[in-house]
Amino acid sequence: MSEKKKESVLAGFKAFLMRGNVVDLAVAVVIGAAFTSIVNSVVKGIISPVVGAVGTKSLDGYKSCLKAPCAIGPDGQPTGVEILWGSVLNATLTFVITAAVVYFLMVLPMSKYLAKQEARRKAKEGVQEVVEITELELLKEIRDALVAQRGGGGTSPTGPRNGF
The whole model's pTM is what? Predict the structure, then answer.
């Protein structure tokens, strides 16, 4: 591979990495991974014990036997067919809590912020539009005043009359 082609490939790769959306996505993945451990800790440390106060302390312990006998055999392996609906409930609660925290702590405040920014931008555009309309009205008044000073009848839409 030639040196020039190598430089263009590296320059293209650098441009790709420095694009805003790629960097933002990388940051989001890292923060999401860290945030997942926080949410999992909240679920395991707070939510699961509260829900488990009704039954077992861990939601993972909730299960139903689909095909008997559901027990641990002499070799240490489970027998029968169990439905581990407690694990599904735990994963569902984790998802709902994660979605709620992301919505209320990130999406909702950002939406309000962007709405305020949009309102400010529209208000600024509205002021500029009023100024432009006012300038147009002022120019029309100046034109009318100039026409009135000339006597009104001495001009035509194509220019002054020369008497021809």
Answer: 0.46
